[in-house]
Amino acid sequence: MHEVSELTFKLTNTNKHSCAFKAYLEDTSDIVFDVEPKRGILEPYGRAGTNFRITFKPVEVFIRYKGMVIIETE
User: Fold this and answer.
1) Domain residues of the chain, as ranges?
2) Assuming Cys at both sites, which of 3, 10, 39, 43 could form a disulfide with 47, CB separation 3.0 to 4.6 Å?
3) Rg, the chain, Cα only
4) Mean pLDDT value of segment 19-29
5) Which of 4, 2, 1, 74 is nearest to 39 (CA)?
6) Would you tell me how many other CB atoms lie within 10 Å of the CB of residue 23?
7) CB count, 10 Å around CB of 47?
8) What is the dihedral of CA 57, 61, 66, 68, to 10 degrees?
9) Using CA of residue 35, residue 36, residue 39, residue 41, what is the dihedral sign?
10) What is the pTM of this model?
């Protein structure tokens, strides 16, 4: 409890062009989650990918938390 866990992953665009993105948590997500970066450029398909990090810092035990990350592009 009160310790941060994190998940990291890489994501690319579905085509061979980079594009701007906005990353955020859905409004119904619990506040114990966060996503970084919030804005940036999504690398094109075929590249290494843009790094994302989701963090989780629970504040109570025996609670089921939920969150949904949305990565929005053009």
Assistant:
1) 5-73
2) 43
3) 14
4) 98
5) 74
6) 21
7) 13
8) 10
9) negative
10) 0.89
